[in-house]
Amino acid sequence: MYAFNAVMPILLLVLLGYVLRSVGFAGEAFFKKANTLVFRVFLPALLFCNVYDIETLSDVHWGDVGYIALIVVLLAAIGVLLAAAFVPERLQKGPFIQCVFRSNCAILGIPLAQSLGGTPAVAFAAVATAVTIPLFNTLAVIVLSYYADKTPSVKATVLRTLKNPLIIGVGLGLLVLAIRSFLPHTADGALAFSLERDCKFFFSAVRMAGQAASPLALVVLGARFDFSAVRSLLRPITVGVIARIVFAPALAIGGAIALTHLGVLQFTPVEVPALVAVFGSPIAVSSAVMVGEIGGDDQLAAQLVVWTSAFSLFTIFITVFLLRSFAYL
Question: What's 237's domain CATH number?
């Protein structure tokens, strides 16, 4: 039931965008500008707030989340191999590859962990998402920049990555965290200065801008969605959906369980919900926004968001059922 309640709002907002375009509410130019607004303003604000919400850098248990980060990088490498085998068009490779490794844990991660593991699971899930979100965005920018350039170079790809608004949003968040670690504390243990407390009007505006990112991105996605494109994109859609919501969770969760039995890792019912959230959820909504701005087949990106979201209703249910059957949740 949780999977249904978590994913259906995504699909309904996509449907809203599709209906708005169908009834002539606005033209392509409007939705293209809205896509740019999301990418250059709202999403960076969302990522800044996600990173800012980490209490301190010392709260990130790098040993616990190292496995998750490693699997994300491994999935990106597997995505490159799958793209070489199944996706001949260069502009389709970037959207396809990011579908393999990138999930919607920013939106679904914490609520899903809360639903599966309660309050104890939320802390680990927060750490996991705080690490994976910057990693997702960095890898996505690199991959999309590389395949959008007909004559890619390392220098050009690095420059495009550093100038990307999403990377800037994450970078500013990390800078604030670093500065916060050097600030003195008051007698009661509170920070001498807090952006959220002492500049509340500014921080509240940034937070509100971030909250607008996903709903507007979904409406724009629906407005630019084309059902007739499914047939021509059937092969990359099919492989991408299977890789995202079947292969990725099987590899990550199966590997974690196997390594725990071998005594290498210690994944318990407190940590396993984060694995489901990071690897079992559909591709991130912002992935289609990024493709539209950086370059690539934005129609394929939109199709992958919609179909991974739709089919994840079933795969999340099956994953949770199996994990609970074997007492891993």
Answer: 1.20.1530.20
Task: Note the maximum CA span of the chain.
Answer: 65
The reply to whether 191 falls in a domain is no
Q: Residue 196 falls within a domain, yes or no? A: no
CA distances from 293 to 1, 8, 32, 71, 165 (A): 35, 26, 9, 27, 10
Nearest-angstrom CA–CA distance, 173 and 167: 10
103, 284 Cβ separation under 8 angstroms: yes
∠ CA 250-127-179, nearest 5°, is 150
Asked if residue 276 is part of any domain, the answer here is: yes
Three-class SS of residue 191?
strand
Structure token pair of residue 133: 């979100």
Helices (H) and strands (E) in the chain, counts: 16, 0
How many domains does the chain divide into?
Answer: 1
Tell me which residue range forms the domain holding 40: 2-181+201-325
Tens digit of each residue's pLDDT (9 = 90 or more) over 174-226: 888 788 878 887 767 677 777 888 888 999 999 999 888 878 888 888 887 78
pTM summary value? 0.79
Place of tokens 């502009």: 91
Query: Rounded to the nearest 5°, which phi and psi values hold at 191?
Result: -65, 145
Q: Where are the beta strands (DSSP E) in the chain?
A: none
Three-state DSSP class for residue 185: strand
- Identity of residue 144: L
- CA–CA distance, 27 with 38 (Å, rounded to integer): 17
31 within a domain of the structure (yes/no)? yes
Q: Give, in degrees to the nearest 5, the angle at Cα 55 between 51 and 59.
A: 100
Please list, in sequence order, all residues whose beta carbon lies within 8 angstroms of the beta carbon of residue 49, skipping any fewer than 6 positions away.
173, 206, 207, 210
